[in-house]
Amino acid sequence: MKHKEFHFDFIGKRKIWYIIALIVLIPGICMWIFAGLNLGIDFTGGNILQVSYQSDVELADVRAVVSEYVDQTPAVNQSEGNQFLIKTEEMEENESQALRDALSELGDDMSVLRSGRIGPVIGSELLSNARWALLLAAILMLAYITFRFRFHNAITAIVALLHDVMIIISIFAIFQIEVDSSFIAIVLTIVGYSINNTIVIFDRIRENDKYGGQKNFAELVNLSINQTLGRTINTSIAVLILLLCMLFFGGATTRMFILGLSIGIVAGFYSSVFLVGSFLVELRNHSNSSAKKKAISVKTKTANNK
């Protein structure tokens, strides 16, 4: 069966792709700077309560009771059996006791497994570890992609990944979606997913450069993106279908995590198809222009010395 061939001019319209990316990034960065992210208690600190019931209790009922006693949206997760882990903003002891009394009315024989306060230090450690993880990943990817392809490819891949991360942050900042510890997992997952699509395109560019004839570099990159477009679309749609099913039919506890992954998948698709090739062409053109200027300068100096 013959695969569908695409003939889109991705490189020729690269300024349009840059503008579309900036339309999302600029408002998001402004919101991030001036309004900040909506940080959850994993980063700001608060109270933690873990309870267990002998009888069956619905997660929605627990969340409704907790919401009556706090101003910020609580994090309520159900674990095995009828155990619930509840994270709220910081509460006084009398408020915490009132919450426990209200929760005990939901079912018989409620037992408190854990009750206390969590500080923002945990959130600071998570952010610090995430920064180090991203930095290490960037260094290793730079080294690997430079070894397999060229340094220009490595720089292009890192810029594209930075775009994906900033898109996720921008969307969360614009809509003030709560950022909890799962946000770090979202970012790291998308970095790993997006780089895979980019490597596939780089590999096709190298093959076409070796066996594809005398095309100029922009045409060669455009051809390579079109040749891998079907694979990229099919992979992204398959993953998105799964994520959307989990988003609409899964539990509320994983909804924000799945939403973040969905945003990241779309951003990764966009950067891999519309931006990576354009960045690579721009970088190659700049490099060639600088090399030509340097060569002309050397020839001029040589001629003057004679």
Summarize the amount of helix as a percent range: 55-70%
Number of strands: 6
Tell me the structural class.
alpha+beta
Order of helices and strands: HEHEHEEHEHHEHHH
* Continuous helix count: 9
Radius of gyration: 26 Å
Short description:
The chain is an alpha+beta fold. 69% of the residues lie in helices and 9% in strands.
Can you walk through the features of this model?
- This protein has 306 residues and is an alpha+beta fold.
- The chain has helices at 14-34, 41-44, 59-67, 93-104, 121-148, 151-174, 182-211, 217-249, 255-305, and strands at residues 38-39, 46-52, 75-78, 83-88, 111-118, 178-179.
- The strands form two sheets. A four-stranded antiparallel β-sheet has the order 3-4-2-5. It has a two-stranded parallel ribbon with strand order 1-6.
- Helix 6 packs antiparallel against helix 7 (182-211) and helix 7 (182-211) packs antiparallel against helix 8.
- The longest helix is centred in the C-terminal third of the chain and has 51 residues, at 255-305.
- The model has no long low-confidence stretch (mean pLDDT 84).
Q: Notable features of this structure?
A:
alpha+beta; four-stranded antiparallel β-sheet; single chain; two-stranded parallel ribbon
Write the layout of secondary structure elements.
Layout: H1 14-34, E1 38-39, H2 41-44, E2 46-52, H3 59-67, E3 75-78, E4 83-88, H4 93-104, E5 111-118, H5 121-148, H6 151-174, E6 178-179, H7 182-211, H8 217-249, H9 255-305
Parallel strand pairs: 1-6
Antiparallel strand pairs: 2-4, 2-5, 3-4
Helix pairs in contact: 1-6, 5-6, 6-7, 6-9, 7-8, 7-9, 8-9
